[in-house]
Write a structure and sequence with these properties.
Blueprint: E1 2-7, H1 9-18, E2 20-21, E3 25-28, H2 32-37, H3 47-67, E4 77-82, E5 88-90, E6 100-103, E7 107-108, E8 112-117, H4 123-137, H5 141-151, E9 156-158, H6 163-169
Antiparallel strand pairs: 1-4, 2-7, 3-6, 4-8, 5-6, 8-9
Helix pairs in contact: 3-4, 4-5
């Protein structure tokens, strides 16, 4: 199953340097809960659109990780990886975001399909969003507006062999 793991550049550096990210991990995937959230059946589902929704949920979770990683550049990061179904537990509690899963296994660099990262042009908006994301989670419309500004930036796609050189530029 393809999962989308929220990250920071610090997490990406660990992935490159150590060749894996030690589990367990909270990630996002196309689950029955996510399908239900978008009110689509298996037959109606556009898998690409649902995967994009999971990616965006991971990108928002990346804002929360940046809040506790003050040395990381203010760029959202997401690792897309393929893991076995038996390493995934669906988190379908009412207070948990749709598509959230628990990955019990390590994520090896060889399992990574791609990395998604904000460009430099997003840093100011991401910095502002990091400062208010928890308020947005609690329902503040003003904070949500700030988060929406950051989420308006498209994440760039990088192949696994590009991660190290990309991090060296930051």
């Amino acid at each position: 199953m393809r999962v989308y793991l929220p990250a920071t550049t610090t997490v990406l550096r660990t992935l490159v340097d150590e060749g894996r990210l030690v589990g367990p991990h909270t990630a996002f995937a196309v689950t029955a809960v996510l399908r239900g959230h978008y009110a689509v059946s298996e037959a109606e589902a556009d898998t690409e659109e649902l995967e994009y929704a999971a990616l965006l949920a991971a990108a928002r979770a990346s804002l929360r990780l940046l809040d506790v990683d003050p040395l990381a550049p203010r760029r959202r990061a997401v690792v897309a990886a393929d893991v076995t179904d038996d390493a995934i537990a669906t988190l379908d509690e009412p207070h948990i975001e749709a598509g959230a899963v628990r990955v019990t296994a390590d994520i090896a660099l060889r399992d990574v399909a791609s990395v998604h990262l904000d460009g430099a042009d997003a840093e100011d908006d991401v910095r502002a969003a990091v400062n208010v994301v928890l308020e947005a989670d609690l329902g503040s419309e003003d904070a949500q507006f700030v988060v929406d500004q950051a989420e308006g930036h498209e994440l760039a796609w990088y192949a696994t062999q590009e991660i190290g050189p990309l991090l060296d530029l930051l």
